[in-house]
Amino acid sequence: MTSTTKKRIAIALGSLVVLLALALGIFLLKRQELLQYALRQVKAKVEAKYPVTLALGPARFVDLNTVQIDGVSLVPTARPDTLLQARRINASISLKSLFARRPVFSGLQIDSARLTAHKTATADNYSFLFKKQKTTVKRDTTQGANYGLMVNQLLETVFDNIPGEADFRSFLVTYRSPEHTATITMPRFAIEDGDLQGQLTADIDSVVNRFGLQGHVEPGDYSLTANVYGLDGRPVVMPYVQRRYGARVQFDTVRVSLTGKDLNNDELTVKGTAWARNFVVHHPKLADHDVRFPRAGIDYVATLGKAYAALEKGTKVTLNQMEVFPQLSVRKLPRNKRVIGESNGVKSRDEMLAGLQVKALIESGETPANDFFNALPEGMFSTLEGMQGEGTLTYRLSADLDMNKLDSLKFNSSLKGKNFRITRFGREDLSKLNTPFWYTAYNDKGDSIKTFQVGPPNPKFVPFNQVAPTLKYAILTAEDPRFFTHKGFMEKAFVKSIIQNIKEKRFARGGSTLSMQLVKNVFLTRQKTVTRKIEEALIVWLIENTHISTKERMMEVYLNIIEWGPKIYGVKEAAQFYFDKQPANLSLSESLYLASIIPRPKYYKNGFNQYGEMMSSARYFHRLIAQLMARKGYISQADYEGLGYHLNFNGPARKYIVRAVRDTVRTVSPADSAQFEPLNLIDLLGGGQDEGVNTNVPETTEPPAPPKQ
Question: What is the end-to-end Cα distance of the chain in Å, rounded?
Fold first, then answer.
């Protein structure tokens, strides 16, 4: 090759290099120019969608297609208070899309981001994100808020703003309001191809949790799966529930999913699942200890609409191996007017608070007995823990409650067995009712009062056939008219107790049968909690439906353990304390008196004035119960018509009841026989401070045959 040729080649190569360098320079200048254009487009798009100012710091390419932005902030225009800021953002950009002026960013990496939300009594710096788009369609709000539209708006806001790929590093979220404070620290949280992974430390209302998060999200399909689990071997504690309701709710692991949503005619339907491991609930009104669900989950189909929310058919709850199929709806009723008076022909009206209408239908599948017992939450049925059986059990509950019409409450709860029998008792041997056993009496505070044996070895024990028939009949009439025919429950009485408890917002009325009172006293604590009441009902069902004990034996134990006054337990102590008699020798009036004080034994002297004369309230009880006893054939009509109101207190109780001697010369004043206002019949028959007793007016229908003597 000649030198001339070499020179020509060198010149050509040099020219090519210069051209390439020039082209590269033009490309880089154009790329930077297009980048600035793309960022202006992003800024315009965000500011057009939301009332904010988006500030972007210097931006440059750090390699062929990676962009770095030094500094980003988002400030609401209505309130100059920075909502979001980040020290640096890196993102990949498709060069093809960039030159086509339709930039596509991916691989978002955000360093040292801060999301700071504030709320005062009058304003905040974040609610604009959830404002509904302006629409010409007028929505009907007269029936209350539309929860379907609200939740749909929330879901769309969240899912529409989830990036396909992102890597948050040192991300801090803070929230402050008059009611709540929250600080969430994420050292790193990543989204890659829809996969979620990160660790968080959350301090919400002074409840601190460290937990991990794993899952997958498909924003376009409104699909999400997430696993939340505690770190360092510690559970995750729900903060808001603890502060709002005074309850502690915690779990080791929770898996939740949303498989999709459907908005139709302003009604939203969502489907998904939620599962928990070691889910624990503690609330003093629920139980005096933790209630734990080792493994529980729900496959849900939920509908939300105008003042309405429901779990629909297709929802399934799983407790270990037991499956339950609930249908539940809650509707907020509209406000309405009620007439409260009339003056000069003009009716005055009062605004009535909106109430709730709740409907429920809960059915279990036919469940093997051991699966049923294993499904019972730990701590909720401590007496039955370890119980085993054969056959199957099926549970069903239906309820219909209108808070504006409480008296129309409908409620039914039933447990049915098929070839069911108990093969092993749990912590408590329920069959101990049939043999002598030791019984400890407690007061309402849980302090033990006395311990004694229930059975022939105790000289104070009285067999069933050695108790005066009039006392047994009086107790049955006042406390449980159908004791010898029902299976442990009286549905009407229970429904009435629910109504009264809801009205008074407390355990004001028990609605208990003798069976329930017996179980409460023999096997359970005095705690007035929801779980204790449920456990009581299940034990009663087991005793009554597996024939663990006869009705006669149950009433015999009942008569020998119930409280009849201050530290007076059992019918023998009661007969001697008040009348210095044996239980077999009690008269009709004495029997009626003893029956009257069972619901409120601490107030045994309240029915008498200082001279030991029966007041009008006690007379009313005497006459009513005796009339019902005569109608049922427990006593003769002559016994009823000859009933007197004088009682001879010849036992130690006399000095507490008869506190003065009447002057025989003195004229009797009407006030002497009625010092107090007559008690309400419900109070007489069981209302008041002692929960767990039947407070129903005895039924007037024909009774079963009198019990054996």
Answer: 136
Domain ranges of the chain: 313-334+354-427, 430-660+673-684
Taking a C-beta distance cutoff of 8 angstroms, is the pair 553, 547 a contact? no
Of 121, 119, 144, 142, the C-alpha closest to 130 is 119
Who contacts 135 (Cβ-Cβ below 8 Å, separation ≥6)?
A: none
Within 13 Å, how many C-alpha atoms sit on residue 590's CB side? 22
Amino acid at residue number 48: A
Task: Assess contact for 153 and 133: CB atoms under 8 A.
Answer: no
**CATH number attached to the domain at 430-660+673-684:** 1.10.3810.10
Q: Is 246 helix (H, G, I), strand (E, B) or coil?
A: coil
Contacts of 366 (CB under 8 A, 6+ apart): 392, 393, 394, 418
Residue predicted with more confidence, 591 or 486 = 591
Q: What's the maximum distance between 2 C-alpha atoms anywhere in the chain? A: 159
Instruction: Return the bridge partners of 152, or none.
Output: none
In whole angstroms, give the CA distance from residue 44 to residue 103: 14
Those residues whose C-beta lies under 8 Å from the C-beta of residue 445, and which sit 6 or more positions away, are: 526
> Which pLDDT belongs to residue 123?
84
DSSP conformational letter for 261:
E
Residues of the chain by 3-state class (helix, strand, coil), percent to 5? 30, 35, 35
What is the rounded (10 degree) CA torsion for 32, 33, 35, 41?
Answer: 170
In angstroms, rounded to a whole number, what is the distance separating the alpha carbons of residues 681 and 496? 14
Of 153-162, 163-172, 427-436, 684-693, which range is least confident? 684-693
What 8-state DSSP symbol labels residue 312? P
CA dihedral of 237, 238, 242, 247, whole degrees rounded to 10: -80
Higher pLDDT, 348 or 506: 506
Mean pLDDT across the chain: 82
Concatenating the DSSP letter of every residue in 144-189 gives --BHHHHHHHHHHHHHHT--SSEEEEEEEEEEE-SS-EEEEEEEEE
Tell me the CA distances in angstroms from 190 to 167, 198, 260, one per residue in order. Answer: 4, 6, 23
Q: Where are the beta strands (DSSP E) in 428-494?
A: 437-442, 448-454
Contact between residue 388 and residue 373 where contact means Cβ atoms under 8 Å apart: yes
Asked whether the beta carbons of 310 and 329 are under 8 A apart, the reply is yes
Q: What is the residue-wise DSSP string for 199-219?
A: EEEEEETTEEEEEEEEEEEEG
